Automatic annotation (TrEMBL):
Record note on quaternary structure: Homodimer which binds Holliday junction (HJ) DNA. The HJ becomes 2-fold symmetrical on binding to RuvC with unstacked arms; it has a different conformation from HJ DNA in complex with RuvA. In the full resolvosome a probable DNA-RuvA(4)-RuvB(12)-RuvC(2) complex forms which resolves the HJ.
Organism of provenance: Planomonospora venezuelensis
Residues where Mg(2+) 1 binds: 17, 151
Residue numbers binding Mg(2+) 2: 78
Taxonomic path: Bacteria, Bacillati, Actinomycetota, Actinomycetes, Streptosporangiales
Name the UniProt record assigns to this protein: Crossover junction endodeoxyribonuclease RuvC
Keyword rRNA-binding: no
Active site, per annotation: 17, 78, 151
Leading EC class: hydrolase
PROSITE patterns from the UniProt entry: RUVC (PS01321)
GO molecular function, one term: crossover junction DNA endonuclease activity
InterPro entries (alphabetical): RNaseH-like_sf, RNaseH_sf, X-over_junc_endoDNase_Mg_BS, X-over_junc_endoDNase_RuvC
Length: 205
């Protein structure tokens, strides 16, 4: 007897492209293999002339306001990598920590995605440039123009990546739990659904 395929519910994800001068924020809603919808996009800005503590407080306030307005199921933050400019990477890491803290304090799941992972998910190439990512984000969300600045587009890319990759993985545990509880749901049926979703994503790109 075949199992009943699991319909993966829509996931609302808020992406955070961390930075002190510009912290990109973007939220999308959708499920793997289905059209995505834009919820909100923008940036939190701070002045380089301000003291570091004040800048972090401003980033926190901006992210908290977004969490209130968006109400995400999950938050996706870019994983910070070492860069040649130590001052830049330190600011990025600090803003990243603020975003993780704000979400975790509310009990919202947080996922970290590498830049190459996001690029591969959005464009099919882990070495895509910012313009290619922005172009695909615009197309996937059916926007009239590319989100600007690039930090905002990158935040949307993070959110999309998590819907397509992390979101589906998170739902697998729920599907398996329902299966073991005797609902007739099977892991095989779930993975068959993911295979169809993957083919849909490929055609969209």
């Amino acid at each position: 007897m075949g199992g009943v395929p699991v319909r993966v519910p829509e996931l609302r994800v808020m992406g955070v492209d961390p930075g002190l001068t510009r912290c990109g924020l973007g939220a999308v809603e959708g499920r793997p293999g289905a059209p995505l919808s834009l919820v909100k996009v923008g940036v939190v800005r701070t002045s380089a002339d301000d003291e570091i503590g004040a800048r972090l407080v401003a980033v926190e306030a901006g992210i908290e306001q977004w969490l209130d307005e968006v109400g995400p199921d999950a938050v996706a933050v870019e994983r910070v990598f070492a860069q040649h400019n130590l001052r830049t990477v330190m600011g990025t890491a600090q803003a990243s920590a603020v975003a993780i803290l704000c979400a975790s304090r509310r009990g919202i799941p947080v996922a970290l995605h590498t830049p190459s992972e996001v690029k591969a998910a959005i464009t099919g190439s882990g070495t895509a440039d910012k313009k290619q990512v922005g172009t695909m984000v615009t197309r996937l969300l059916r926007l009239d123009e590319m989100p600007r600045p690039a930090d905002a587009a990158d935040a949307l890319a993070l959110a999309i990546c998590h819907v397509w990759r992390g979101g589906a993985q998170n739902r697998l545990a729920e599907a398996l739990a329902r299966s073991s509880a005797g609902t007739g749901t099977t892991a095989a049926a779930y993975f068959r659904g993911r295979g169809r979703a993957g083919r849909s994503r490929g055609s969209a790109q």
